[in-house]
Amino acid sequence: MIRAALSVFLAFAVLGSPALAVNPDEVLSDPVLEQRARDISAELRCVVCRGENIDESNAAIARDLRLLVRERLVEGDSNEEVVDFIVERYGEYVLLKPNTTGANIILWAASPVLFIVALISGTVYLRRRSQAREGAVALSADEEARLKELLKDG
Predict the structure, then answer these.
(1) Which of 75, 94, 113 is where one domain is finished?
(2) Of the ranges 47-51, 61-65, 149-153, which one carries the lowest mean pLDDT score?
(3) Angle between helices 31-43 and 60-74 (to 10 degrees)
(4) Per-residue buried b or exposed e for 75-114, using 16+ beta carbons within 10 Å of the residue's own CB
(5) Looking at the structure, do residues 84 and 8 belong to the same domain, yes or no?
(6) The whole model's pTM is what?
(7) How far apart are CA 41 and CA 79, in angstroms?
(8) Whether residues 73 and 126 fall in one domain
(9) What is the pLDDT of residues 69-103, one digit of tens each?
(10) Long-range contacts of 34-37 (CB under 8 A, 24+ apart)
(11) Of residues 1 and 123, more confidently modeled
């Protein structure tokens, strides 16, 4: 029983792990360079698949980017130089984790600022609403009689 459960768990673990789209002909012979290429590829977004990095994507452009990364590494570029080259060529969109510099700082700051504004607005709204109930005027006798009359007809 334990063996069967372990087998099922192992099967789910293997099937549930992300499949890498790196083809054997793309792999570099130098394991250090190949590891650097994998590290860089994990940070770059596939421009077709959007939610995947280029290592996980089967798109043709992702393959081209993987080959470009490996080509630049073989030429002697550092990891930062490779990423800078690809960002210069394809734009900042290819970064899975955008930089927090320049105009991007507005995007990074917008979420917390808007959240605080929403909290303050909600608090003000709820306080005014509770104060409005306290100051509500009761119906006069004529109004109550008219209301009862309307409800009887309906």
Answers:
(1) 94
(2) 47-51
(3) 130
(4) eebeeeebbeebeeebeeebbeeeeeeeeeeeeeeeeeee
(5) yes
(6) 0.57
(7) 10
(8) no
(9) 999 998 988 999 999 999 999 888 888 887 777 77
(10) 34/70, 36/73, 36/79, 37/66, 37/69, 37/70, 37/73
(11) 123
Residue 53: phi, psi to the nearest 5?
-85, 170
Evaluate whether 52 touches 35 at the Cβ level (below 8 Å).
Answer: no
**Tokens at residue 151, please?**
């409800």
Residues 46/52, Cβ–Cβ less than 8 Å: yes
**Which amino acid is residue 33, in one-letter code?**
L
**What share of residues in the chain are helix, strand, coil (percent, to 5)?**
70, 5, 30
Quick one: tokens of 114?
Answer: 């808007």
- Which range, 18-27, 41-50, 101-110, 118-127, has the best average confidence (pLDDT)? 118-127
